[in-house]
Amino acid sequence: MNGPWWYTWGGLNERLFLAVNHAGHGWLWDHLALWGTAAGDHKLYPFYAAAALALALKRPNVLATQAVLVLLCGYLIDWAIVSGIKPWLDFPRPPRVLGVAAVHILGPAEYAHSFPSGHAAFAFVLMASLLPGAHWMLKALLVVFALWVGWSRMAVGAHFPADVLGGALIGLFSAWLAAQGLRLLGYARAKR
Q: 5-184 belongs to which CATH class?
């Protein structure tokens, strides 16, 4: 694998990908990976935002409305960063780097715009935005969701670990930036 040191990790990025991608197979394993990828699609943002808002309005003891506001703003930041970086860097995806025969591919094979993982960025902005205003059970679900989506992107053969980590960091940063901006505008961030 060629690329900058911060991406290749001295070959560790490729080795970790292969370990995760080939860790298991079978109906349940493959479907968990496919479902994780489907659940982390940023096209579901309107659904997740509406569900979070409905939950916050109906059960404010489970989710604070300020957290939903952070999500609404954080997603826009996340989307702008990811959509700007992906075409600019245009890193190749695992099937192009390693060859289709070496990668366990679930769903359509993807070859370009590997860094960062948009799915991971979306899952982590969702988690980080809602976490401070969530009940402990919802917090646990949000963490599991974000980790599931990140794992699924490697399991389906779409992203290297560096892509997932980069997406996760962008999602966390986007939520933090949205919360800071809203705080400066006078909207206090909810904490539980």
A: mainly alpha
